[in-house]
Amino acid sequence: MHRTHTCGELRKEHAGEEVTLSGWVHVIREHGSKQFVDLRDRYGVTQVVLEEKADIRRETVVKVTGKVVEKPKANEKLATGEIEVQASSCKILGPADPIPMEPEAENTEETRLKYRYLDLRRPDMQAKLQFRDDCASSVRKHMHAHGFTEVETPILMKSTPEGARDYIVPSRLHKGKFYALPQSPQIYKQILMVAGMDKYFQIVKCFRDEDLRADRQPEFTQVDVEMSFVEQDDVIALGDELLKNVVKDVLGKDVKTPFPRLSYAEAMDKYGIDKPDARFELFLHTLTELVKDSEFKVFSEAPCVRCLVAPALSRKQIDKYTELAKTYKAKGLAYLQVTKDGVDSPIKKFLSDEVVDKIVKETGAKPDSTILFVADKEKVANDALAHIRNALGKQFELYDPEELNFLWVLDFPLFEWNEDTKDWTPMHHMFTMPHEEHLQYLESDPGKVLAQAHDIVLNGTEIGGGSIRVHHKDVQERVMKAMNISEEDAKKKFGFMLEAFQYGAPPHGGFALGFDRMVALFQGETDIREYIAFPKNKAAQSLMDDAPSDVEQEQLDELHLTVKK
Prior knowledge:
By secondary structure, this protein is of the alpha+beta class. It has 3 domains: 12-94, CATH 2.40.50.140; 126-261 and 406-531, 2-Layer Sandwich (BirA Bifunctional Protein, domain 2); 280-395, 2-Layer Sandwich (Gyrase A, domain 2), CATH 3.30.1360. The protein has helices at 109-114, 116-119, 123-145, 186-194, 232-251, 264-271, 288-291, 297-300, 315-327, 353-363, 378-395, 441-444, 473-482, 487-501, 515-522, 553-558; strands spanning 18-31, 34-41, 44-50, 61-70, 83-94, 149-150, 168-170, 178-180, 199-207, 219-228, 261-263, 284-286, 304-311, 334-339, 342-344, 369-376, 406-410, 415-418, 423-426, 453-458, 461-468, 508-514. The strands form 5 sheets. Strands 6-9-10-22-21-20-17-11 form an 8-stranded mixed beta sheet, with helices on both faces. A 5-stranded mixed barrel has the order 1-2-3-5-4. Strands 12-13-16-14-15 form a 5-stranded antiparallel beta sheet.
């Protein structure tokens, strides 16, 4: 027996018992001929007293047998602090070389990922993985309670365009052909609805070959949900209840449902972004018409002029936000300082007193505030001001960081215009059902079509989205045609799905939650790598095992592949 108890289990009521503990040597303290060892496992730390010094280093794995004794003075920092184990034997189970990183130190990301097995020994990392498991268990509990069946869908699938690049896998048996790793189970879950499964869910791995950031990985996990014979309100109500229950289970917090709902148009008008942080009310204003006749050409010649009212900013702070605006393609920031003595700014001389007064009135700016303007294309103005707004909220503590603010954004455009390809592309994906009254515009004016789509946002981060799906073959073909997908291409890439729709498809819809993002945000973090056991770095590399790596020529030959140098 390697242990009778864990290192976090013993209390003073165990005093006098003979026990065996196994774990890692966390700290060694010398006191005369004795060694005091803090022995650690994932459950806690117990102090062990060795009467004779043992030849051990930190992080050595040892097995200790001895008697539990009550300490004369408890260590209140440890749950086991009322006792210690006086060892009669200490056996080394796993010797340790000098460790290449100090787990408790502020290590670089490169070091932490290279020695991830050491990094994961830290109690806070183990607590994060446990929290992730708690969230997954809660999701499964509540989905099963609602009659959903968990069904696994293929990892090796047909390559179909879904928005991002596919990871492709060569076939050894079928020369020159490839599988793809799923960007999502979208097509399979729709076919499960055609198959009559009615209520499906899955906690599933997805793969997208795209540029990485703190909340994005090449492989990620999502909670995937699909249900038949539902309308959009039914799907959203399930999402409300699921998230409310998971938050209660894992955090012990109550969140009020139903969650607020915003249209896409309203979100863009108020916040400039389709994933707004609604914990604070700092709204954007459109002043294009108001300033179009001004002498300030930056305003009068711009296609769009938008602004927001910030707390009073110094010139240095304005310069900082100007640089932030430029990262979102804005040429710069104009500003007006509103004080109790009036309005001041280098641009004031180009604006009449009447226009300045109208700007102050329109924006509701009060003394001790700064109005920040972006004059550019509407998308640039929205992007820049939305991110400035988020930065202001954080800098001036305009919200409670402990609050969990969920909201739904609805009625997205079905398509957006791609300037590079000169085509309409789906804002979400091509399987999203248009609003019934907008079907008439699919051929004549695709940009006018709104979709029965819904995104769920938490504290300014999109954590999921979904829609009512297309379930009629003719409607799906019309959507594809609007995207300039030929009938031949549609059949080649999606023929099996279109064929399935011919044999009785129920109305259906659902959503997917970005599980990694959700878990991180529940604990106030944005870096999802902290909640993934073995993540990739920003270059999509695994530093611990050196993936991706070269393969032997023999393997390439078996797969009928030649690598271009």
